[in-house]
Amino acid sequence: MDLVQRCVKYFQGNLGLFNSYPFTVKGMFKVKEAIKGTYCEGYDIYIIKYDGDGASRQVFQAACEGLKQESRYKSLQAKDGTLEMVDEKDTHILLMPFKNYIIIILGSPSFDNASKIAENLENLISSR
Question: Which CATH fold would you assign to the domain 3-126?
Answer without folding.
Answer: Protein Transport Mog1p; Chain A (3.40.1000)
